[in-house]
TrEMBL record:
Organism whose genome encodes this protein: Diatraea saccharalis (sugarcane borer)
Presence of the UniProt keyword Disulfide bond in the record: yes
Coiled coil segments of this chain: none
Domain spans labelled Ig-like: 28-177
Listed name of the protein: Ig-like domain-containing protein
SMART domains (alphabetical): IG, IGc2
Transmembrane residue ranges: none
Keywords of this entry: Disulfide bond, Immunoglobulin domain, Repeat, Signal
Length: 198
């Protein structure tokens, strides 16, 4: 008869065995019942948002805007403000205009603290307010509407324009393309002009 050796059979009740504990990570889970849903408030009104999450190790909660930009909280004079890197919104990225007309390009910037804004043509030349261009800004709280008016639109004005916004947290820009819309005399249609590529 062959006897098999099993070491654990020789352990008596006084022998101490090492116990190994393994920590198992549990991914974060947001508890919907204890977390804010969509909230609408008037500009400059206070709002309280809450987020409760479980997991192991305990998760760190970070707030971001819809466009995934990070928001940093800052207390100014007893009030909390979010610091937000600039985000540029361009409602019309492709604009056409007939020659000889005035053209208005617009960008909306959302940021805090306030931004430095400017316009650039064809990725090089910074545009300045003057006889050819009128540059305006309409600021309201954390939003800024940038407008560039190009007077007497000509073939030299065709191209790419960038609205650029920068603050201490970052930089953002939007791109607009401007092209010529050809006007035809009412007696001649565009189809008649383009026949045969002439």
């Amino acid at each position: 008869m062959v006897e098999k050796y099993f070491p654990w059979k020789k352990i008596n009740h006084l022998t101490k065995l090492p116990i190994f504990l393994r920590t198992i990570g549990v991914p974060p889970d947001i508890i919907n019942d204890e977390t804010s849903t969509d909230v609408s408030v008037q500009e400059l009104d206070n709002v309280t948002l809450s987020c409760t999450a479980t997991g192991h190790p305990p998760p760190k909660i970070t707030w971001r805007r819809e466009d995934h930009e990070l928001m940093l909280l800052k207390k100014i004079g007893g009030r909390d403000f979010y610091k937000v890197a600039p985000s540029v919104i361009v409602p019309n990225q492709l604009l056409g205009a007939p020659l000889g007309t005035d053209v208005v390009l617009e960008c909306t910037v959302e940021a805090y603290p306030n931004t430095i804004n400017y316009w650039v043509k064809n990725r090089g030349e910074m545009l300045l307010d003057g006889p050819k261009y009128t540059i305006t800004e309409e600021r309201s709280s954390y939003k800024d509407l940038m407008k560039l008016t190009i007077r007497q639109f000509s073939k030299n004005d065709i191209g790419t324009y960038n609205c650029v916004s920068t603050n201490s947290l970052g930089k953002s820009e939007g791109t607009l393309r401007l092209y010529e819309i050809k006007l035809y005399p009412s007696s001649q249609s565009a189809a008649e002009v383009n026949i045969g590529g002439e």
